TrEMBL record:
This is Chemotaxis protein methyltransferase. It comes from the Bacteria. InterPro entries: Bact_Chemotaxis_MeTrfase, CheR_C, CheR_MeTrfase, SAM-dependent_MTases_sf. The keyword Transferase applies. It comes from Caenibius tardaugens NBRC 16725. Transmembrane segments: none annotated. Keywords: Methyltransferase, Transferase. SMART domains: MeTrc. Coiled coil: none annotated. SUPFAM superfamilies: Chemotaxis receptor methyltransferase CheR, N-terminal domain (SSF47757), S-adenosyl-L-methionine-dependent methyltransferases (SSF53335). GO terms for biological process: methylation. The gene is cheR. GO terms for molecular function: S-adenosylmethionine-dependent methyltransferase activity. Residues 1-271 form the CheR-type methyltransferase domain.
Length: 276
């Protein structure tokens, strides 16, 4: 079904209201294909019917938003980032947190959980230096369907092979008839919660490491600034934030600054040090 301009505008506003994301005009081609299944299931055959039903059906509205979210992810995505976390960031954080012997890590926009589980595997591989430590790994996403899938921790053959070597795959997952199941010890290291980044940091927690990659790409500048403010507030003293390869703080926020020791990572600028 080809969507009319009024229908595109209604759906775009709905997505923005629920998630803060902008559905740019160069992505309008994707809207009709993404919505084809949920509209067909409900017998919605015209743009006029879609607009009418969206004003009355909250479940349809949520399903439309879910269909438009980009849940692209895979294990150890952008391997150089995880290598740097393993060899430089985690050792540095461990050194700074020796007195507390605790670390908190947040995967913001975690999609179906691969990023958060990858972080848990990295931590498990460094158990020799983290014995007796409290490690909290949180994955959050605005998509209820993505969080449900992350909590299940079951992956297809295609998903399990994306980014995972054989060693990690066999050590951390079990093959069953319905897919590859994350081991209980791995699932117990991570908690997943539905959370909109624009609503602020989860609870009152502060994090030593935050990954928020390829989330801010879909925000306009004002929304991106709100997100940066929330991310900065969520960083513990000495904590680090890493963004996606196409994202930057330049011209976006004065609450964060590049970390000298970790290229591509950012730290919070204390209020007393900020200009203005």
């Amino acid at each position: 079904m080809e969507l009319s301009r009024p229908a595109i505008d209604v759906v775009s506003r709905l997505l923005n209201q629920r998630t803060g994301q902008q559905f740019e005009s160069n992505r309008h081609w994707r809207m009709a294909s993404a919505l084809a299944a949920p509209l067909r299931q409900r017998g919605i055959a015209s743009s006029e019917m879609l607009i009418h039903r969206l004003s009355q059906d909250k479940v349809l509205a949520q399903d439309v938003v879910e269909a438009l979210l980009n849940n692209e992810t895979y294990f150890f995505r952008d391997g150089a980032v995880f290598e740097h976390i393993a060899t430089r960031v985690l050792p540095g954080l461990v050194q700074r947190r020796q007195d507390q012997r605790s670390l908190a890590i947040w995967s913001a926009g975690c999609s179906t959980g691969q990023e958060a589980l990858s972080l848990a595997m990295l931590v498990a591989e460094q158990r020799h230096r983290l014995a007796g430590w409290s490690i909290d790994i949180l994955g959050t996403d605005v998509s209820a369907a993505a969080i449900a899938a992350a909590r299940r921790g079951v992956f297809t053959q295609f998903e399990i092979q994306r980014g995972l070597g054989v060693g990690r795959m066999l050590a951390s997952f079990e093959s069953r008839a319905d897919g590859w199941h994350a081991a209980d010890w791995l699932k117990q290291m991570v908690r997943f919660e539905m959370q909109n980044l624009l609503d602020g940091p989860p609870a009152v927690e502060r994090f030593d490491l935050i990954l928020c990659r390829n989330v801010l790409l879909y925000f306009d500048q004002a929304t991106r600034q709100r997100a940066f403010a929330n991310l900065a507030r969520a960083l513990a003293p000495g904590g680090l934030l890493v963004l996606g390869g196409g994202e930057t703080i330049l011209g976006q926020t004065d609450r964060l600054v590049a970390d000298r020791d970790n290229p591509g990572f950012y730290r919070h600028v204390p209020d007393l040090c900020r200009t203005g």
